[in-house]
């Protein structure tokens, strides 16, 4: 779930359940519209946060829609860090 958008445009999300993406993993929201790449995994081991670098910084209206949204691995798009 997206918890914050940083001033630099990175998206901070909390890993849900047992899914913890690797750095370099491409992610999308439930609608498949948002796309970005995990650049950092940090925080508690049991439920870490991830920092996601979007393809482009979200506009203000897009950022508002992203807050609280679920993030998922983009199928067939796993990258390497």
What would your notes on this structure say?
The chain is mainly β. The protein has a domain of 47 residues. Helices cover 9% and strands 43% of the residues. A 6-stranded antiparallel sheet has the order 1-2-5-4-3-6, with no helix packed on it. It starts with a strand and ends with a strand. The relative contact order is 0.32. The C terminus is likely disordered.
Outline of the structure:
This protein has 81 residues and is mainly beta.
Name the poorly predicted regions.
77-81
Number of strands: 6
Structural class: mainly beta
Major sheet: 6 strands, antiparallel
Strand content: 35-45%
Number of helices: 1
Helix and strand element order:
EEEEEHE
Characterize the overall form: globular
Strand order of the largest sheet: 1-2-5-4-3-6
Rounded mean pLDDT is: 86
The helix content is under 10%
| End-to-end distance | 22 Å
Radius of gyration: 11 Å
């Amino acid at each position: 779930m997206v918890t914050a958008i940083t001033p630099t445009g990175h998206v901070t999300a909390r890993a849900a359940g047992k899914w913890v993406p690797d750095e370099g993993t491409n992610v999308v929201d439930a609608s498949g519209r948002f796309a970005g790449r995990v650049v950092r995994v940090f925080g508690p081991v049991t439920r870490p946060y991830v920092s996601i670098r979007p393809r482009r910084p979200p506009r203000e209206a897009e950022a508002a829609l992203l807050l609280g949204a679920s993030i998922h691995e983009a199928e067939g798009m796993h990258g390497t860090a």
